[in-house]
Amino acid sequence: MTSAAKIALVTGGSRGLGRNTALALARAGIDVVITYNSQQDSALEVVLDIEALGGRAAAIQLNTADIPSFPRFAETLQSKLDAIWSRDRIDFLINNAGIGAHAPIETTTEDTFDQLMAVHLKGVFFLTQTLLPVIADGGRIVNVSTGLTRFSLPGYAAYAMMKGGIEVFTRYLAKELGPRGIAVNTVAPGAIETDFGGGVVRDNATVNKMIAGQTALGRVGLPDDIGPVIASLLTSGTGWINAQRIEASGGMFL
User: Fold this and answer.
1) Global model pTM greater than 0.85
2) CB of 151 closer than 8 Å to CB of 253
3) Are 72 and 39 in contact (CB under 8 A)?
4) Using CA atoms, how far apart are residues 74 and 115, in angstroms rounded to an integer?
5) E strand spans, the chain
6) What's the CA gap between 19 and 161, in Å, rounded?
7) Binning pLDDT at 50, 70 and 90, where does residue 197 land?
8) Which residues are tagged catalytic?
9) Is 145 helix (H, G, I), strand (E, B) or coil?
10) Homologous superfamily, domain 7-191+223-248
């Protein structure tokens, strides 16, 4: 039997915002395929959590910086879709996977810059390109950016540059995929309490207090503040939102 459920692919879904997004989608009745780089056990736990919510899910290993592996990943994805859902297409793509880096411009190394570019910019471009035939017409894409493309904090220049490129990429995707009825948007989280970047926002009380004091709603963001925002862009009633940057930061640095 062919599944009637919508299916989303969430990159970097084994932890943090990716995990939260996958679970938010499951609560909205959307089945989920997540990718993980090295944390297979955590990814399988997310699959079990989704199944406990009544949904169907799968986890596939993917290094989003390894562009030559993308065609093989697409083949594996289609095999999973056929085996679990009797489908050959996904409905939604969420480009979430990422790494953190913090260094002033004067000490940022070429290696760090290249790693950030491979994961956050080049990898997103070419993974999306690879998966375009696998995304159903009328589907949607959400690219995860950062509040740091609007406001500037020392040490994040290289990271924010890559995310700025993703925001431009979002608009071009929306333009070129419009004939297929595919809407594309960016969600830009503010500072969130996760282990991203070594967990500095979550674990450094001074940083946490500073950010809370610069946020209109008076606290630092939590994963639960972001996953449902992404999920909302994939549910009914938001299909006319297209090519937009939606910041979910609680009102940082207004």
Assistant:
1) yes
2) yes
3) no
4) 23
5) 7-10, 31-36, 57-61, 90-95, 135-144, 183-189, 245-248
6) 25
7) low
8) 159
9) coil
10) NAD(P)-binding Rossmann-like Domain (3.40.50.720)
